[in-house]
Amino acid sequence: MSAITPIVMPKWGLSMKEGTVNEWLVEEGTEITVGMPILDVETDKIANAVEAPDAGLLRRKVAAAGDTLRVKALLGVLAPAEVSDADIDAYVSSYETPPDEEGAGDEAASAYHFIDVDGIRVRYATRGGDDASRPAVLFIHGFGGDLDNWLFNLDALAEKNRVFALDLPAHGQSTPKLPGATLADLAAFVAKFMDAAKIDRAHLVGHSMGGGIAVQMAVDQPERVESVSLISPAGFGDEVNNAYTEGFVKAESRRELKPVVELLFANPELVSRQMLDDLLKYKRLDGVSDALSSLNGGLFAGGKQSAQPGSKLAATGKPVLVIWGGKDQIIPAAHAKHAPEGATVRVFDDAGHMSQMEKANEVNALLKEHVAKGA
Question: Are residues 121 and 174 in contact, defined by beta-carbon separation less than 8 angstroms?
Fold first, then answer.
């Protein structure tokens, strides 16, 4: 049965244990190509399409819509036409879901960690082991986000790199206290996090506000930065949609928050009830609302970005990758034209502000290529 290739429930993020099949997007008999969306799955974090990791003929849908299955459970079967139905039946009946060995062996490095940086307790995650000879890649999320914004990306980059992702101050599970409310303040803090985590130099991957922080780091501390990858970054133009930034700060209920969070995605159906509940739980922590309000005032007051470090990026000489969603409703995709000369620029016409989630397969390929070239 070596010609049979299983399609299994993916593991998205560090905490995913199971997923629910919403619907299949392809029919049995379809020739599947790598990266093709084949079925929609919902987790406690997000609903998204499973993209095929392997190519082949879809011979059998094993999981049905509504099934809730463990990570690595069998969803379907790819096999050439010459493989008999009996062989496929035997494969399906004998398939055993492997254990999710989180916390064992190499997987131990995938757990959440906490570290003190200037009196702020920072949550972060690591992937890819601790071999210092491997390049380091540091992911920096955006306003109101956390390290789980990278749940589709960390493992892909960890194949050949040491990967780190942190919750910025006043975000996720880090202390709700700011080191300051400017990109320069936040960039200096991230550099101190690198010191504490013993990261000498890193390829920076920044989203939205995190993109602005990454650019500011390249400008202020170029010796710490190998390359810069930016997804819908701040810092390349004046405009920012304060219906999102101010709306996020002010929302106090699921009803108020839902239309705000939907602005992030080209497809608002990606916003799950659990995602909203998690965000509300975070926003209700003591100190979070005040910190977010200060940060919004410092960076995006009146719907205008206060800092434009992107104009100084070319002078750093760093390799630059810029990714944008053509349907971005937070920071206009037109800002991509301000990328430095020589930068690799990719705009996805059918993505919004969260390309790393909406176009994960394509974004991961771009990130891996960019980091490899800059190593």
Answer: yes
